[in-house]
């Protein structure tokens, strides 16, 4: 009686999960507002000319993560809100080894894609409750859990904190 | 004095070295930590890049204004460059970068310039082609200021880098010195360690040697050596113990001693082990041990000693000696000693007897000498005087006188011959040459005949003979010898009794004996004389002046005993009479008349 019930429950959950995935896939939306991030390269899902374009609403629809950490270029500890880099990559079905992040001023940094598995690397759109501004480090800032992992308190990680992020290229 | 502080100095030096080692190591670690800390490059030390990028952003915004004026780019591109420029300024004004700018001395100038930013923002937002020169004019002081700042940042960074390298180098040298010190201290410690190790190894080797030697000693010891722990489990069982108990070591080592052999379950042995556990030695001597297989028991001496480790008693050692052979030897010795004692005793007895015999012989010869000198002199004197008279008066003597004198001389010679014959009889008796032919004889008749003959020879003496009623009185004897004995006794009685006294002869038969008692008046005063009268050549105190050689009674008793009879002197001095009794075996009438002759052994 019980195993049958459990297996029924399990099958039910499976169906819901499949439906949810299908819903996300089906609902990869067309761009509504201003595009603030474009994802290119070896990705499975695109919404315009082989490119995945995101407005703020689409990015905010991704699972929200919070992270408290200090930074190399500011004083004190800040609360960052945003989404995980790996969630975004999974969302677009990225397949590759390297991710190149490019900033508004063409500052470009290469990441090993496995790094996002090792660390909860955040793409933040909010700091201390306030949206990141384009005139400062916004609208998107790659944030590492610097306080949580001492090995990240290194200049070789400091240069990866790309702010005014506009583009990701996956190879 | 110097010896007492030398070990202390060694320890102090070692402690000092270890202290130096620790201090230097700690110091080195601190130095290394400092270097490690210094090696961290902060983002703020990258001010040249930060300032340059701000300068570039200012240039680009300025250029974007011109391009926008020419219509080459759209408004959003202009705004983007504006944002980038603002972003760079915001970065410069943020925490660490701001402080760095203050150090470089450009913070104030940057603040002064920032009053223009609202105007700049307004220009960008509502850009018209004619605004490009004004935009350029507003950005120009930034470009100048940032250029100067970059210049100074570069110099400061290089100076900082140089001094940092200097300090790092200095610290590295200190570190090198410190490490050299550590190496020295380490080398000293290593040397000490090596020496200590060598010492320890040497000691260990010595110990090994001693242990091996001890083991060899234990193994080759002729004595059984057994060791047990506090639980009485066997830990040592040497070869001698194997031989003694006939149990191999592999059956005892690690097992209870009681299980190895029942011998160790004996109360005495267990008690001795417990005693040794209490720290007192114990000894058990001459304990019998019965081997499993049939055989004679062996005898063991056991000594128990406690086995100590420091203060604690950790077991017991048993030394076992096989004393079986010793014991046997001791028994042998004791046996021999007893035997010897017996032999000595027997020999002493023999010697005593020989001595007695020798003394008796000496006495005999003395008596013989005395008797001869006395008894032979008298007849010789008689013969001599008779012959002298014959020689002196030969012409005047009548034939009767000559006959009378020669007759006296012959009588004396006859007596002497008789004496010599008696002496020879005694010698024959001693040599065993006298034969006894025992027959059933009429003893009454013999007594009567002898008495009658004596009465004829000496009529002055009255002799009374008393015979029992029963006739005949048969005795088992040699009639000749019996007669000789009686003749001797009777002649003695005649010779030594006072005149006019009665000599009584009385024959009686009791049971299987025939007894003939001869008594005469007289006495033997000395008790020693009573036995001496039967000795050869002994002559009593009353024999003075009477012929005789002291052979008669000796011969009489010897002959009586040869016929299985006896001759004894009766007690009875108080009656004033001397009584000799001849005892002979009684013969039945039907007894065979003759018996085989007996050869007499020498006395």
Q: What's the topology here?
A:
The complex is a heterodimer of chains A (171) and B (603).
Chain A: H1 2-26, E1 37-41, E2 52-54, H2 56-61, E3 65-70, E4 77-84, H3 85-92, E5 98-103, E6 108-112, H4 115-118, E7 122-127, E8 130-131, E9 141-143, H5 155-158, E10 165-170
Parallel strand pairs in A: 1-10
Antiparallel strand pairs in A: 1-2, 3-4, 4-7, 5-6, 5-10, 7-8, 7-9
Chain B: H1 2-39, H2 47-70, H3 75-93, H4 95-104, H5 107-114, H6 117-125, H7 132-220, E1 224-229, E2 234-237, H8 239-245, H9 257-260, H10 267-277, E3 282-289, E4 298-309, E5 312-322, H11 324-392, H12 399-431, E6 435-436, E7 439-442, H13 443-457, E8 462-466, E9 474-477, H14 479-496, E10 502-510, E11 513-521, H15 527-532, H16 552-562, E12 566-569, E13 577-585, E14 598-599
Parallel strand pairs in B: 8-10
Antiparallel strand pairs in B: 1-2, 1-5, 3-4, 4-5, 6-14, 7-9, 10-11, 11-13, 12-13
Structure description:
The complex is a heterodimer of chains A (171) and B (603). Chain A has 171 residues and is an alpha+beta fold. Chain A folds into two domains: 1-29; 31-170, Oxidoreductase, molybdopterin-binding domain (Sulfite Oxidase, Chain A, domain 2, Alpha-Beta Complex). Chain A is 27% helix and 29% strand. Chain A contains five helices and ten strands, in the order αββαββαββαβββαβ. Chain A has helices at 2-26, 56-61, 85-92, 115-118, 155-158, and strands at 37-41, 52-54, 65-70, 77-84, 98-103, 108-112, 122-127, 130-131, 141-143, 165-170. In chain A, a hairpin with a 4-residue loop joins strand 5 and strand 6. With 603 residues, chain B is α+β, with helices and mostly antiparallel strands. Chain B has three domains: 7-189; 222-322, PAS domain (Beta-Lactamase, 2-Layer Sandwich); 432-599, Histidine kinase-like ATPase, C-terminal domain (Heat Shock Protein 90, 2-Layer Sandwich), CATH 3.30.565. Chain B has 16 helices and 14 strands. In chain B, the strands form four sheets. In chain B, strands 2-1-5-4-3 form a five-stranded antiparallel beta sheet, with helices on both faces. In chain B, a hairpin with a 4-residue loop joins strand 1 (224-229) and strand 2 (234-237). Chain B is rod-shaped and about 240 Å long. The two termini of chain B are 101 Å apart. The relative contact order of chain B is 0.05. At the A-B interface, loops of A face helix 2, helix 3 and helix 4 of B.
């Amino acid at each position: 009686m019980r195993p049958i019930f459990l297996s029924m429950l399990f099958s039910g959950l499976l169906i819901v999960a499949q439906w949810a995935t299908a819903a996300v896939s089906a609902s990869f939306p067309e761009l509504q507002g201003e595009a603030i991030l474009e994802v290119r390269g070896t990705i499975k899902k695109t919404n315009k000319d082989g490119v995945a374009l995101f407005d703020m609403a689409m990015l905010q629809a991704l699972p929200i993560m919070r992270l408290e950490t200090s930074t190399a270029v500011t004083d004190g500890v800040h609360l960052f809100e945003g989404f995980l880099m790996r969630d975004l990559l999974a969302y677009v079905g990225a397949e590759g080894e390297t991710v190149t992040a490019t900033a508004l001023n063409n500052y470009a940094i290469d990441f090993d894609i496995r790094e996002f598995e090792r660390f909860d690397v955040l793409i933040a759109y909010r700091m201390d409750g306030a949206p990141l501004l384009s005139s400062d480090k916004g609208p998107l800032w790659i944030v590492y859990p610097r306080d949580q992992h001492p090995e990240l308190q290194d200049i070789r990680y400091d240069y990866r904190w790309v702010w005014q992020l506009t583009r990701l290229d996956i190879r | 004095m110097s010896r007492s502080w030398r070990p202390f100095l060694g320890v102090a030096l070692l402690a000092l070295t270890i202290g130096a080692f620790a201090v230097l190591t700690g110091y080195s670690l601190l130095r290394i930590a400092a270097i490690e800390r210094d090696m961290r490059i902060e983002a703020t030390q990258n001010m040249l890049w930060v300032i340059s990028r701000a300068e570039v952003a200012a240039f680009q915004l300025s250029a974007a204004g011109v391009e926008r004026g020419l219509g080459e780019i759209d408004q959003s591109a202009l705004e983007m460059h504006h944002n980038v420029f603002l972003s760079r300024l915001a970065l410069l004004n943020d925490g660490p970068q701001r402080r760095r700018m203050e150090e470089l001395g450009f913070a104030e100038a940057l603040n002064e310039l920032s009053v223009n930013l609202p105007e700049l923002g307004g220009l960008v937002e509502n850009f018209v082609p004619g605004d490009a020169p004004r935009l350029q004019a507003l950005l120009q002081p930034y470009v100048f200021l940032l250029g100067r700042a970059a210049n100074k940042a570069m110099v400061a960074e290089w100076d900082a880098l140089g001094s940092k390298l200097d300090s790092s180098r200095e610290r590295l040298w200190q570190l090198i010195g410190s490490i050299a010190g550590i190496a020295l201290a380490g080398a000293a410690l290593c040397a000490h360690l090596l020496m200590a190790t060598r010492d320890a190894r040497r000691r260990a080797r010595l110990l090994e040697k001693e242990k091996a030697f001890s083991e060899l000693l234990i193994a080759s010891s002729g004595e059984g050596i057994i060791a047990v722990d506090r639980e009485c489990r066997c830990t040592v069982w040497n070869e001698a113990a194997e031989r003694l108990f006939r149990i191999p070591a592999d059956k005892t080592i690690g097992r209870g001693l009681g299980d190895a052999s029942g011998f160790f379950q004996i109360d005495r042995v267990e008690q001795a082990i417990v005693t040794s556990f209490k720290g007192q030695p114990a000894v058990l001597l001459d304990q019998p041990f019965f081997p499993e297989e049939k055989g004679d028991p062996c005898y063991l001496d056991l000594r128990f000693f406690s086995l100590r480790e420091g203060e604690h008693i950790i077991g017991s050692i048993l030394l076992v000696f096989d004393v079986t052979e010793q014991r046997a030897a001791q028994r042998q010795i004791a046996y021999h000693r007893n035997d010897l004692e017996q032999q000595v005793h027997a020999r002493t007895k023999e010697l005593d007897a020989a001595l007695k015999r020798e003394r008796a012989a000496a006495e005999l010869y003395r008596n013989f000498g005395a008797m001869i000198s006395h008894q032979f002199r008298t007849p010789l004197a008689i013969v001599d005087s008779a012959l002298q008279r014959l020689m002196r008066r030969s012409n005047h003597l009548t034939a009767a006188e000559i006959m009378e004198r020669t007759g006296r001389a012959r009588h004396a010679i006859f007596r002497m011959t008789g004496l010599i014959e008696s002496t020879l009889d005694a010698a024959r008796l001693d040599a065993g040459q006298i034969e006894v032919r025992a027959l059933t004889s009429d003893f009454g008749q013999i007594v009567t005949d002898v008495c009658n003959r004596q009465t004829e020879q000496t009529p002055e003496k009255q002799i009374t003979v008393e015979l029992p009623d029963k006739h005949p009185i048969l005795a088992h004897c040699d009639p000749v010898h019996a007669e000789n004995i009686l003749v001797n006794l009777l002649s003695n009685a005649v010779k030594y009794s006072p005149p006019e006294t009665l000599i009584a002869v009385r024959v009686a038969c009791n049971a299987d004996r025939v007894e003939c008692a001869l008594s005469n008046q007289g006495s033997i005063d000395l008790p020693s004389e009573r036995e001496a009268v039967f000795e050869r050549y002994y002559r009593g105190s009353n024999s003075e002046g009477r012929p005789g050689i002291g052979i008669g009674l000796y011969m009489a008793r010897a002959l009586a005993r040869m016929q299985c009879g006896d001759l004894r002197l009766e007690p009875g001095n108080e009656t004033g009479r001397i009584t000799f009794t001849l005892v002979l075996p009684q013969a039945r009438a039907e007894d065979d008349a003759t018996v085989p002759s007996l050869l007499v052994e020498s006395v």
